[in-house]
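Researcher: Structure prediction, please.
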Amino acid sequence: MTSNSLLETTLAQIHTRFETAFEPLQLDGEPLWVLGITNMRSHLDALLAKNAISDPLRDLPLWAKVWPASFVLGRFLRKFEPEGKSLLEIGAGCGITSCLAARYGFERVVLSDIVNDALLFAQANILRNELEQQVSVKHVDVCTTRLQERFDIIAASEILYLDDIHRPLLRFFQRHLATGGKAVLCTDVARHKKRFLKLAEKEFSVTTQHVGVRSTDEDGTQQKRLYAIHILEHA
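Model: Predicted structure follows.
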């Protein structure tokens, strides 16, 4: 099956529940095409009507949002000399970081999430940007999944807000980082988790760098956000 056929099949699955459109995001002079939900309001209304939102952090389609931290992390990963290296992204959502990582030279990228809809959208983005030779999608739950391989880099953006995954996340890193590998986590400093870092420092050498980014909110307001990038290496 050709890439175009795979994309059509993926979009057909998505369109059974969502109305969508690809939007170009200009990055380093080249557009990255990202699939967005155009009927989000009616989708949320349907969830409310079915009483399907008991925990907003878990039940709302946060995976469909284009998070600025994904771009910050994707660009930061260039510092790790990606040529020939493997990368696993966890909690990838629609896959912005993984697509950027592939463009910047990672040889093999595995994009993962626990939400099947997120993986469908990510697959569409991979195919639309012609990155299917480098990037694959996989359902991964850091609390239960045991992969049969290790990665040079494990990356995630805005994942630390879920306090109950902190310990499982660190165990996952222990099992799935290659020798000399690094876990790289990006979060808005407003969602900084000191508890996670204290836990991580028991098993890893942890360094933190800060990146400031100017962004525009949906109402057009300009503001500067500060992101923390935590790098975990075996001590």
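Model: The beta strands are 20-27, 30-37, 86-89, 108-113, 135-139, 151-157, 177-188, 204-216, 222-234.
Researcher: Thanks, that helps.
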